[in-house]
Records
---
Amino acid sequence: MINRKSSLDLTLVPFGYSQLQGRLVDVHQVPSGKRCGCVCPSCKAPLIARKGNKKIWHFAHDSSSEAFQELERCSYSFFVSARMMARQLIGDSLEVALPDFEIVLSGQGAESDYPVHVSESVTTSRQVRLHDVVVDAELNGQRFDILGYVGEHSLAFLLTHPGRDGFPLAGNHAESGIGMVAIALDGLKDEFRKLRSPDDSYGDILTNYIANDTTSKKWIFHPRQQQAEEKARAKLAKALSKKGRAISHARRASSPIRKLPGRQDPFNEDLLAELGRVEKANNRERTFKYVCRLCNSSWVGVGNVDASCKQCNNSLLVSRVELDT
């Protein structure tokens, strides 16, 4: 039984190139040790098939070979061998699960404290069958690991891993309408650790990973991508406008009413009459002592009604003092 918890060094190789068979082989398909007759697909150094009970089975570089010094330049031999083996295992047709693709845009208005996010679906996850599949194909100046057709539409795949992460520029293929998907091989390390017995095959795991794993796949370009981006931009503009109006309305509702500079409120006769009645009522209730400074006479009266001097009819030189009631 193989120890499933064993670590997997990236310089350990799951697939070697058999010099006798002239093709890549799984470590499970060859004898142990140097008798495997395999070399590294990446650096061409001789390999040793390690098939013990403590670690998962793998090829290792032969440290006694003259080519062992090249190991430093073979840091990603695990991924290189997996990528080359994937090409070898794929026939002229392939069933593959494609991932979701969604355009997500964000924007923030001038008066907003938080951004607005919108999304527009380009395609949903689905299973497709590719026909007329070729490997290591070149199209429009870009090399792809896998190229096939879904109906009349072309679909290309690029196998990526550490040391090989560059995506082709999608803009170069927009006019041609070629769908492009990247498949990251990083997750293979964990999948290979799940190997239960020597009867299992790395090749089977690799084939299933390429065909059915969607978390490892990412759209580089989709023929409907530009249309979805235009819809997302329109949706974002509408959402920002709506949020801006809501913020302005909320601020107006919470702000006190202010008189604009240079603007006069219209004359309101009813309001002025009401104010006069209030003032008159207030004055009727207040008692004053009046003194005429013209004739020195004095008297007690109420409000403005008794504000004129009875002796000399003077109303301008009259002072008053409110009396406590």
---
Amino acid sequence: MKENEFDIYVRNLMAGAEESVSPDVWKGVEAGLDRAARKRTVPVWLWRGVAAAAVAAAAAARPAQNLSNQPTIQQPVAQATDAPLPAVTQPEEDDVTPIQKQAVRLQGRVAQVLEVPVAPEASEELPVTVDAPEEPAARRPDTAIKPDANAQDAFASDDEALRQLAFEEHRTHRKGEMSMSVLGTLQSNTRPDGPVNKVRRTSGSFFVPAPTKPGISREGTEFSFGLPVSAGIGLRYDFNPRWGIGTGVVYTNLSRSFLGDYGKELEDGSIATLYDTDITNQQHYIGIPVNVFFNIVNTGNWNFHVRLDGMGEKLVDNHFLIHDSAGDLHLHQKAEGLQFSAGVGVGLEFKFSPNVGIYFDPTLRYYFNGNQPRSIRTIQPLRMDFEAGLRFSLGR
């Protein structure tokens, strides 16, 4: 047979060659690809390429195998001769490997190369579903965010809650707090009829009986009063943020100078009279105060309060110093009873550290008559105290 006749024969033979693939085969291939994709993400186009390659390979193998089983051409093609073409013997069905099996084998080889686990061939055919990518949400134009009235109310309530919490914490901190103070007090020393001039009377101006025993026989008008000075230690207990009580121990010194007559005992036992001599009197009191505090302002570092005072004092030493040209003489006298007083005042305290503060408490005080020795208190019972000191917090 001539070469051109063979070419024409093969062309005619291959002109209608087509391998139709069953839909079941495609479903099996896609089901296997879907199961593999769930275990490891592999691009869909790769699996589809593998399946297409498998189909193309199977289609190419079928005609080639048919050609290998064709008998030897004994006669020329119809175009070259008028004799009819010999019949083509079809191969047995068992000799052709099903395309589904070939596709599965090819899929397994590709999976081994890509290290993708391949599920065993499914007994039931599952549909292939491909999740479509979600479309991004349409971007909204930027708009100005208006404040929410409810949110503003919530913020305001939060601020109020924080302030209330701080106040409660302060209340808790102040509740049951003990403090100690070191105090000092100055008191005015002016007589009700004005300043006292230093006036000395001359002796012999009028008859004065001679003293019959040692001591002061006559006291003249004072010509000076010393500033009453007090010092002490106080304890204060605030049992709630508003109310507190206090006590302590206070020492007070009163002094005055006057002209008086003094009976001086001589060595022979006789009494010599010193007329209009300078005498200085020092009175030493120990008192126990009782204070009640009402805090008007008690926040932060500031404390503004009102106080009510009551105090009882005992004269422990009434000392007279008699000035004499021959030498100063000392005389000590006792006094019975107690000196009571009551006062009302206001106070201001500033705490410059968590445990230490400075305070100033002016107080208007009245001294009751208690048969005490003559002093600025007996002459002017309504006095003004100026107390100041340091207060130390001792905790709860």
---
Amino acid sequence: MSATVPPIWHHKTHRIAGHLFIAVLTRYGVTLTRLRLKDRNIHDSWTMLRHKLVRWTRVTTCMKNTAGARIEVRIDARPNPEAYAIAKAAGVPFKSNRQWRKHLKQTD
């Protein structure tokens, strides 16, 4: 598999090392995810997986109440059937019987 590696624009050694560390961890995570999916008969490329999952989003709305406290409402979009199958095969924990979920958080 051939991958295009973007240039690293960091100049300090510790930043280059951090960048490479994150890149290696990411590659390891992608490989493990694809292996898990292949075990469950999903043989898509990483690009195709991302394309199928791109519309499954989480929306966070922030506002202030009359007392001035910040309120956050977080809603997960419903995954399309392809995204649901990928998430289930990858072992992503969520309750399939819930269409969406709200998270209400109030801070002072």
